[in-house]
Amino acid sequence: MSDGAIVGVATVVCLFGGPCLWGIVSSYMTEWRKARVAEQAAVLKRDMIERGFTADEIVRVIDAGAELEDKIAGKSPQPSGHR
């Protein structure tokens, strides 16, 4: 291959391969984070049940955590679907 062909192939790979790789990694990390958050929420709920919390208390704690996350992220609060 000549130097010009190598530069052309490298350009095409960078223009198309880079964004594709970025999208794949971004999607994977987003889904991984969702799975970790769900896992942590399940552990918290199980721990609260073992400690004798009522369902209303558990919902209140989970909703308070969601409101805090929204404040940190700068989002407007969303109504809870638990009630």
Could you walk me through the main structural features you see in this protein, from its secondary elements to its overall organization?
- The longest helix is centred in the N-terminal third of the chain and has 48 residues, at 3-50.
- The chain has helices at residues 3-50, 55-73.
- The radius of gyration is 23 Å and the shape is elongated.
- Helix content is 81%, strand content 0%.
- The protein has 83 residues and is mostly helical.
Helical amount among residues, as a percent range? Answer: over 70%
Distance between the termini: 67 Å
Query: Mind summarizing the main beta sheet?
Result: none
Number of helices: 2
Supply the helix-strand structural class: mainly alpha
For the secondary structure, the number of strands is 0
In round numbers, the mean pLDDT is 85
**Cα Rg:** 23 Å
Uncertain runs are: none
What brief labels describe this structure?
single chain, 83 residues, mainly alpha, 2 helices, 0% strand
What secondary-structure arrangement, pairings included, does this model have?
Blueprint (H helix, E strand, L loop, with lengths): L2 H48 L4 H19 L10
Q: What's this, in brief?
A:
The protein is mostly helical.
